[in-house]
Design goal:
Rossmann fold; binds 2-hydroxyethylsulfonic acid; globular; binds NADPH dihydro-nicotinamide-adenine-dinucleotide phosphate; 7 strands; about 250 residues; alpha/beta
Length: about 250
C-alpha cells in the first residue's frame, strides 16, 4: 500500500516540487492550497505521470474553521497520513519596523504561525493514533538570523524554528519524527508575493547569483524522508553556494 503525504502550499514553488518528488517516491498525495485550478491541474499530473492518487483540499490555512473542516472531512482511506509537510507560507513587504503595514504583519503571522499550528493540531492526532509519522516544517534561514527589514517575517520563522523544537519533544514518545528545513534564497513565487507583484523587484532578488530552485529543496526533503526509521534529521539549513546566511550573499 502506498504511503500518504499531506503537503500544504502545493500549488507553487517548494510545495509543488516536493509534491512531485513525493509522487516519484511512491506516495499518494493530499495537496492543499487556495488556488483550486492549480490543485486540479496538479492532481491530473500526479495521476497520469506518476500513477499516484491525489486528493485536493482547497482552503485558506489562516481560517481555523476551514482547516478543521477540511481535515475532518477527509475520506477514511486518506486518514492514514504518514508525512505532513508544513510548507504554506509567505513574506509580505520589506520595511523597517516603523514603516510596516499591519495588514502585511497579520498575513505573515496568520499564515506562517497560526496556519501551521491549525493543520498540525488536526493531523498530529492521526499520527499519534498509529504511533508513527513524520512532520516536516519549512522554516527558513530567516528563522536562524534576522536581517534588515526582515523583522516580522523573521519573527514568524523564528516561531517555526521554536515550534519544530517543541514538536520534536512532544512527538518523541509517539515515534513521530519532526524535521525543520531551513532554505535560503529559492526562486519561486516567494519574491513576487513579497513585493506584491512588482516583477522587477522580485527578479532583482536573484541578480548576480544562482538561487535554489524548488527542486533543490525537494531533493533535501527526499534525503530526509528516506533515512532509516531510527534516524531523524532535526534541523537542516540549505542555501545557494553564494549565500552564507540570511543577510550575506555574494553577487557577481
Ligand atoms: P510560493 O509563493 O511559490 O508558494 C507559497 C505556497 O503557500 C503557495 O502554494 C500558496 O498557495 C501557499 N499559501 C500561501 N498563503 C496561503 C494561505 N493563506 N492558505 C493556504 N495556502 C497558502 O513560495 P515558496 O515555495 O518559496 O514558499 C514555500 C515556503 O518556503 C514558505 O513557508 C516560505 O516562507 C518558505 N521559504 C521560502 C524561501 C524562498 O526563498 N523562496 C526560503 C526559505 C523559506 P495558494 O496561493 O494557492 O494558497
Ligand atoms: C526566505 C528567505 O532570506 O528572503 O525565507 O528571508 S529570505
Amino acid at each position: 500500500m502506498k504511503k500518504i503525504a499531506l503537503v500544504t502550499g502545493a500549488t507553487s514553488g517548494i510545495g509543488k516540487a516536493t509534491t512531485i518528488m513525493l509522487a516519484g517516491c511512491g506516495f499518494n498525495l493530499i495537496i492543499a492550497g487556495r488556488r483550486k485550478e492549480r490543485l486540479d491541474e496538479l492532481k491530473s499530473q500526479l495521476e497520469i505521470k506518476y500513477k499516484s492518487e491525489a486528493l485536493p483540499l482547497c482552503f485558506d490555512i489562516r481560517n481555523k474553521d476551514e482547516v478543521c473542516k477540511a481535515i475532518k472531512n477527509i475520506p477514511e482511506k486518506w486518514k492514514n497520513i504518514d508525512l505532513l509537510v508544513n510548507n504554506a507560507g509567505l513574506a509580505v513587504g520589506l520595511n523597517h519596523i516603523q514603516d510596516g503595514l499591519f495588514d502585511d504583519w497579520d498575513r505573515m503571522i496568520d499564515t506562517n504561525i497560526r496556519g501551521l499550528l491549525y493543520i498540525t493540531r488536526c493531523v498530529a492526532p492521526m499520527m499519534i493514533e498509529k504511533n508513527n509519522g513524520h512532520i516536516i516544517n519549512i522554516c527558513s534561514v530567516a528563522g536562524k538570523d534576522v536581517y534588515e527589514n526582515g523583522n516580522v517575517y523573521c519573527a514568524t520563522k523564528y516561531a517555526v524554528d521554536a515550534l519544530s523544537k517543541a514538536m520534536r519533544i512532544d512527538m518523541l514518545k509517539h515515534n513521530i519524527k519532526v524535521t525543520n528545513v531551513c532554505p535560503g534564497a529559492a526562486e519561486t513565487e516567494f519574491s513576487t508575493v513579497r513585493f506584491k507583484n512588482d516583477a522587477e523587484r522580485a527578479k532583482a532578488t536573484y541578480t548576480g547569483m544562482t538561487p535554489l530552485t524548488g527542486d533543490d529543496v525537494a531533493n533535501v526533503i527526499k534525503f530526509v524522508i528516506n533515512l532509516p526509521p531510527h534516524v531523524c534529521i532535526n534541523d537542516i539549513v540549505v542555501t545557494p553556494t553564494s549565500q552564507a546566511n540570511a543577510s550575506i550573499i555574494h553577487r557577481n
